[in-house]
Amino acid sequence: MSKSKLKIIPLGGLSEIGKNMIVMEYEDDIIVIDAGLMFPEQEMLGIDLVIPDISYLMERREKIRGIVITHGHEDHIGALPYLLPQLKAPVYSAKLTQGLIRVKLKERKALSEANLKVVSTGERIPLGKFEVETFPVCHSIPDSVGLIIHTPVGTVVHSGDFKLDYTPVSGKPTDLSRLAQLGVQGVLLLLSDSTYAELPGYTPSEKVVGETLDHIMADASGRVIVTTFSSLISRIQQVIDAAAKYQRRVFIVGRSMTDTTRMALDLGYLNAPDGILGRIDEARGMPHNKIVFITTGSQGEPTSALVRMANRDHPQVHIQHGDTIVISATPIPGNEGLVNRTIDNLFKQGARVLYDKVAKVHVHGHGSQEELKLLLSLVKPRYFMPIHGEYRHLSLHAGLAESVGIPKDNIFVLEDGDIFELSSQTAKLAGKVGSGNVYVDGLSVGDVGGIVLRNRKMLSKDGIVVAIIAVNRQTGQLVGRPDIVTRGFVNTREFRKMIDESRDLLARTINHSGVRAVEWSFVNNKVRDTLEKFYYEQTKRRPMILPFMVKV
Ligand SMILES: [Zn+2]
Ligand SMILES: [Zn+2]
């Protein structure tokens, strides 16, 4: 038996939903599981995406043998376009997952240098001292896999995202017999998906959604507009099937939806009867009860096709009475506000809107409590570590593990950055590595940090005040009264008197400060302090104050 320890280090996805990434390290070998992104929370103003901090990996880049991806959802592949150019490691995934990764990498012009490898289930890939094998799991995207990682200290099973749907639309059901076999042979550690650990019972089958869509296509008197995630290929398939049954044609709207469907058709993960898919201009003049649109926007993303339709801003599709809109997704936590506003706007335009609270138009792709317990019981791991979820999900999942007989001391609830160290007989937490959020804002990655976010918060709360101070180039004396320009601070008409007073106050302060106003840093601080104090006394607000000197 080996003396070295196996280290498991989550860099993302624990105590949060999204940006999943787990590092496994043994001696000189590292493998990385998933590289996801997270959508920003409301207070992360102006941030487009959040990806994991990989400084730990950058310091050990030569050890990385590969990045293994469980499936093609954003929270598992979304960080690749940003991280792959830095990590330069080969990426292993199933075929459809690779197709989706290609689409992502191409968008960010990071495809040409990428080394992408397709893995079939059951195949064993040697990655340094690790050997990785994939097994099919059922999830809301085809080609989802879990991982069996053979290590020198024992076998580790990673569930990926999974549920136990015995009648999936596309993709295979979770391979329970392989898991049971492993359970008999002995599993050192199980890492398992906790996303829906709050829900009792079983997650309903995708079939339920198929039946609902069937009714909708049959009953709707006008157009049907279905919105979902572009990666939810099984859902797109269900829409095409239901449309075909009622002789409706299907039009794909929006670039990412078009790209993904085309790729899935090419790779054979999506089947459409001849002639059913059409170009959007062909819909013009067709009877409304023969039309189905599929589009993105289920998360209320401001630039998505659905949101533009909801705001009468879409060039081709105008919502009208008689339209049925199906939102076939649940809002990701944090997006509820945007989604609800979109639904309101669609109702205002006279559409009928069906969403998860009012119709069975979506089932999620993660196992509920009974499914999580079944997996634990089959795999029978010595140690258990819940993954993918907020802290409460992980804690609840830990409780489920205890309930099926895993000793409390063998269950480890980690947070991002924790080092979990295992030998074949022992497991313990052994310190922490640097981890956290890297913000992606437009074209820039990582240069928006805490300070920029804090400033944005300040601006969004109390606005901005610019104080323009003109001084004589030669004498350094103040020329005229300082000017004050404000945005988002107060209604300047109502507060004209206060602004006026602050201008006088500034003039007095600068003239009395006893130094030549050319000593800019001094004046700068003086102006800021004076105005901050004065405005706070008057309004109890703290706008951001920017002094600005002009030499005349
Ligand atoms: Zn997923
Ligand atoms: Zn996920």
Question: What key attributes describe this structure?
Answer:
six-stranded mixed beta sheet; 552 residues; eight-stranded mixed beta sheet; alpha/beta; binds zinc ion
Folded structure, characterized:
With 552 residues, this protein is α/β, with parallel strands linked by helices. The protein is built from 15 helices and 26 strands. A hairpin with an 8-residue loop joins strand 1 and strand 2 (21-26). Helix 6 (207-219) packs parallel to helix 7 and helix 11 (369-379) crosses helix 12 (391-403). The longest helix is centred in the last third of the chain and has 20 residues, at 520-539. One zinc ion is lined by residues 20, 73, 75-76, 161, 388.
Strand element count: 26
Strand content: 15-25%
How would you state the average pLDDT, rounded? 90
Helix/strand/pairing class, anyone? Answer: alpha/beta
Bound molecules: zinc ion
Q: Give unreliable regions as ranges.
A: none
Distance between the termini: 80 Å
Strand order of the largest sheet: 7-6-5-3-2-1-20-21
Percent in helix: 25-40%
Number of helices: 15
Radius of gyration: 28 Å
- Largest beta-sheet details: 8 strands, mixed
Give a brief rundown of this model.
The protein has 552 residues and is an alpha/beta fold. Helix content is 31%, strand content 24%.
